[in-house]
């Protein structure tokens, strides 16, 4: 169920390799009508081509291997949307910058790939993909930049304008950016298709929570020293868009993360690991429809990275060569 894939080469080489390793699957969830509207997807594709043309050729090469229109590559493997994900970024008194990130979703989610990418058209990075071609759900690049996504269950827009799919935004950032400030500038230029939060942290200890909703300017909440992100909007311009949905669980996880690393004790790497393995709220989940499928630990200053393929309380973290 968990795989480690190395992506090396040109856009067409990586696209064809992914096509040889992946199988098309249908989403078990109701998809939006625009995901099958080729004219709409063509306008979305134009945004990708303008922003990062090489990534578009990678996606198109994948689609070509399946005899699918290139535009369908934007959602060719729409397996599922993440529902409950947590992340904390904090700077230790030593100056080191740490990030912990749990990805929680339906336990039967079929695709869980760790991708090490050394392409000819973007910064080297390592990160996870949950089933949507070309995307990254979290990861770190060679400049010590971390980006991770978090689904927000907000009200749906009745009329949607073309934009960038949620899973490609972290990929664009990891490929093109070296700092939190650069990611903020990039996201401000790109129209959004979905309601998501994004955790951004760099090795200099600059953190941002980017809150995105279709048709709205992104909400930027910057922080020094400590930042936690879960699955609700905090920005005053966006929080009304969540309607009457319960937010207590998401807010409890956010508060717990801030408290857990708000004071230092012992080894900060182990402190972050213990935080992401905690069951008090819980951060580490074991429910059928909210299970921790993977967890990542990152030290951005020295580009140290480890992943737990499953609940970290049971599996533990495996440190990887960047």
Automatic annotation (TrEMBL):
Signal peptide positions on this chain: none
Gene3D superfamilies to which the protein is assigned, alphabetical: Penicillin V Acylase, Chain A (3.60.60.10)
Peptidase C45 hydrolase domain location: 91-312
Record Pfam families: AAT (PF03417)
Family matches, as NCBIfam families: C45_proenzyme
Alphabetized PANTHER family for the sequence: BETA-ALANYL-DOPAMINE_CARCININE HYDROLASE (PTHR34180:SF1), PEPTIDASE C45 (PTHR34180)
Protein name: Peptidase C45 hydrolase domain-containing protein
Species of provenance: Herpetosiphon geysericola
